[in-house]
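>> Question from a student workshop board

For tomorrow's exercise we were told to take the sequence and the ligand below, predict the bound structure, and bring the output to class. My setup keeps failing. Could a helper post the expected result so I can at least see what it should look like? The ligand is flavin mononucleotide.
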Amino acid sequence: MRYWPHGVSVLSVDYEGDRMGVTLSSLVSLSLEPPLVGVSVGKQASCYELLRRAGAFAVSMLGSEQEEIARRFAAGHPPIVHWAGVATREGEIAPLIEGPCVGWIEARVVAEHDVGDHTFFVGDVLSAQPGPGHHALVYRDREYHAV
Ligand SMILES: Cc1cc2nc3c(=O)[nH]c(=O)nc-3n(C[C@H](O)[C@H](O)[C@H](O)COP(=O)(O)O)c2cc1C
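>> Workshop helper replied:
Here is what the output should look like for this input. Compare the format with yours to find the bug.
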């Protein structure tokens, strides 16, 4: 899979004011009617329990100029500095990453599937907004690329 390109997004969750974000390559479009997306999140990920409790998530689909954001939310910063210096705006469900994103999606979890060391969450899309980013951030062979 290392050689297979994946778009990069940041999943964010908010459970009663506790907020976390994580860099994600597993966002997938599942259905148009109804609109459903899927994300696969590691059971060891620091946002995992928060996501299960919140039962909802947001994804900011990163633009090619947002590599620093991708690196940051893959680095496992502790809660106290988790969002420090990151420009966000309030979504309906969780904070959305500001800046030249390709788009934003907010979804409510409608199914969870146990998939080994990850859980695959199916999200019913509540809102989807295009962003100003013209090029997407893509990860392949441990490097980021603009597509
Ligand atoms: C490009 C990229 C894509 C990633 N995609 C996923 C993913 O789809 N699901 C996942 O659980 N972790 C994914 N990760 C790992 C997490 O971003 C993160 O590094 C890991 O959960 C450890 O951070 P934490 O301690 O904050 O959980 C990805 C990392 C990178 C760099």
